[in-house]
Design goal:
- By secondary structure, this protein is of the alpha/beta class.
- The protein folds into 2 domains: 224 residues, ABC transporter type 1, transmembrane domain (ABC transporter transmembrane region fold, Up-down Bundle), CATH 1.20.1560; 243 residues, P-loop containing nucleotide triphosphate hydrolases (Rossmann fold, 3-Layer(aba) Sandwich), CATH 3.40.50.
- The strands form 2 sheets. It has a 6-stranded mixed sheet, sandwiched between helices. The protein has a 4-stranded antiparallel sheet with strand order 2-1-4-5, with helices on one face.
- The C terminus is likely disordered.
């Protein structure tokens, strides 16, 4: 609770004032009118003092009205605070998600993260104020009722309170038993949400492979698990409510029996009996509604734990530098090694990049070639060695300035559910329509001009309406439009047909503006025109040189060349 309140520390005064107003309002509106009711009966009706009844009646109505007004304005203030809390928590969570690195997203599903940002924040927003203020008001009113009952007839009050220790014991057992149930319920719900999101995104693949029924069956299994967890919680709550309801009935029964005896013997007035009888429901209410509060409170604790864990997660890749990278003349990898998910992916790499040159990395899947680009972007950190830019360690530059200088296109690009124009101009909103069209033509994205609304066509979530090759070209256009000083192309032509790949490759090589190109590929067609080609094998540089030089070495590169040449027409390589 303390952790949550720090997010509304600027509203703490309002928050506690509002809670005091609600507590006072509940006490005034629910306790004093009942006391005055007893007074009306005993001092007004029973003693034939009818002249005092209007005064007591008006006082009772006034106290009720004052109490309700205090409660009303307290709730208004609380609601204002909790909506501001929800807004602030969502903003902080979203900021944190943008701060965290690629490794975090690989370890956490999108469905689970979405649950943190929506469901969990909403539960905190609801409970931190609403449930707490309700429970505080109810508990305070109950205590006031007990105190007054003890004042007017302590013996009768103690008799009717006999079941309360048993109720308290049952309540403590219920809290203990339900804690794990709510944690398990939330975990199963997050798992279900992740599964739903993943399958919506992969719906095309599911249909292609005809596995709809398999996915439906899996969904049924996960949904059944959520249902069973919810039923377990419900059964525990029903069992608790049955026990507490029975004990509450025993309290009422004790009041009727012993209260009746006390009234007959003259130890209690009719008015006092009515007061105690009216307060019975007030005294019982916290216990009867405890399961609901426990339900809310346990969900609140689980949600706080999840959100707090997210907000306290530190990025593994820290933005500790304060230098701005504007221009660069030299990038050096000095004996660089890197681990990825505790697996060594590159070992003792030595490289040197110069401006306006084209470098290429080729090798088998898992050879470590893609890691070179990720190391430059600091999506992956070095485990040994160092990377320097202009002789300065890469960590001394701010992440923002470093990444502004680099354009990156992956094999599986992400696109927004927006227009083609907005996807191309992402991060570069000043692009004109003509410029956008030029970039699309550069990457051979001619399909765009046949779409219903041309570059203003909305492509759906992650470009669902586009093929893999069309996505790659659109992502490439976006990266080039950024006009970076370094352009990293990670196997971006894997989904293109041969002719389109050849055209795109030639256009990239002949781009009008100067930049350093780092091409990562498995096909020699994509890399053969590079100034320097690095052949990766088992995380190391096995060979390097130009296309012609590597062919003369008769090494790994020549083997790749021969294999690929045999599968195509010889004229391709001329």
């Amino acid at each position: 609770m303390r952790w949550v309140l720090k997010f509304i520390k600027e509203y703490n005064f309002k928050y506690w004032i509002a809670n005091i107003m609600i507590v006072l309002g509940g006490g005034i509106s629910k306790v004093f009118p009942v006391i005055l009711l007893g007074e009306i009966i005993d001092k007004g009706i029973y003693q034939n003092n009818f002249s005092s009844i209007p005064y007591m009646f008006i006082t009772s109505i006034s106290m009720y009205f004052i109490g309700r007004m205090l409660t009303y304005f307290g709730i208004l203030i609380i609601d204002n605070v909790r909506f501001k809390l929800a807004h602030k928590l969502k903003v902080e969570c979203y900021k944190k998600l943008n701060e965290l690195d690629q490794l975090f997203y690989q370890e956490n599903s999108l469905g689970e993260l979405n649950t943190r940002l929506t469901t969990d924040v909403n539960i905190i927003h609801h409970n931190v104020c609403f449930v707490i203020k309700q429970s505080m008001s109810m508990l305070t009113t109950s205590i006031l009722a007990i105190i007054y009952c003890l004042y007017i007839n302590p013996i009768l009050t103690l008799i009717i309170l006999i079941p309360t220790p048993i109720i308290a014991f049952i309540s403590s057992k219920h809290i203990k038993n339900s804690k794990n149930l709510y944690t398990e319920q939330r975990e199963s719900l997050s798992d279900l949400n992740s599964y739903i999101q993943e399958n919506i995104e992969g719906n095309r693949l599911v249909k292609t492979f005809g596995t709809e029924q398999k996915e439906i069956d899996e969904f049924k299994t996960k949904n059944r698990k959520v249902k069973n967890k919810n039923m377990n919680i419900q059964n525990v709550n029903i069992d608790y409510n049955n026990k507490v309801t029975f004990l509450s009935y025993c309290m009422q029964l004790l009041l009727v029996i012993f209260g009746g005896i006390f009234v007959i013997e003259g130890n209690t007035t009719i008015g006092e009996f009515i007061i105690i009888n009216s307060f019975i429901s007030t005294i019982k209410r916290p216990f009867i509604e405890l399961s609901g509060f426990i339900n809310e409170w346990q969900q609140f604790k689980v949600s706080v734990s999840k959100v707090r864990k997210l907000l306290e997660t530190e990025p593994k890749i820290k933005n500790i530098g304060n230098l701005e990278l504007d221009n660069w003349n030299d990038i050096t990898f000095d004996n660089v090694s890197a681990k990825y998910e505790n697996k060594q992916v590159v070992k003792n790499i030595n490289l040197n990049f110069k401006p306006n040159k084209t470098y290429a990395f080729i090798g088998e899947i898992g050879s470590g070639k893609s890691t070179i680009g990720k190391l430059l972007l600091r999506l992956v950190e070095t485990s040994n060695g160092k990377i320097t830019i202009n002789g300065i360690p890469i960590y001394d530059y701010t992440l923002e300035s470093l990444r502004k200088n680099i354009g990156y296109v992956s094999q599986t690009p992400f696109l927004f559910s927006d227009t083609i124009a907005n996807n191309v101009s992402f991060g570069n909103e000043n692009l004109t329509k003509e410029e956008i069209i030029n970039y699309l033509e550069l990457v051979k994205a001619d399909y765009v001009f046949n779409l219903p609304y041309n570059i203003d066509t909305i492509i759906g979530e992650n470009g669902v309406s586009l093929s893999g090759g069309e996505k790659q070209r659109l992502s490439l256009a976006r990266a080039i439009a950024k006009k970076p000083s370094i352009l990293i192309l990670d196997d971006i032509t894997s989904a293109l047909d041969f002719e389109t790949e050849l055209d795109v490759t030639n256009n990239i090589n002949n781009m009008k503006y100067e930049c350093t190109k780092i091409i990562i590929a498995q096909k020699i067609l994509s890399v053969k025109n590079a100034d320097t080609i690095f052949v990766m094998s088992n995380g190391k540089i096995a060979e390097c040189g130009s296309h012609g030089e590597l062919l003369q070495k008769n090494g790994i590169y020549k083997e790749i060349y021969d294999i690929q040449t045999n599968s195509m027409e010889e004229c391709i390589w001329k």
